[in-house]
Write the structure tokens for this entry.
Amino acid sequence: HMSHVTQAKPAPDIYLYAAKELNVVPAQCIAIEDSPHGIKAAKDAGMFCIGINSNRNNITTTISRNATCK
């Protein structure tokens, strides 16, 4: 929820907050995203990211620790 973070995606704040609340390091997390901003946020938080290509975005499906958007 945005009341717990200062910046929205593509900043990694929400992912860092979630990892802290779960008491895990970001590198032990997997994020599933369907937007370029979300993938950037997860990557910048240091998480493994699964990028899903949906009808509403323009990204290539990517499974990578260093996910990229095309």
User: Anything to note?
Assistant: The longest strand covers residues 30-33.
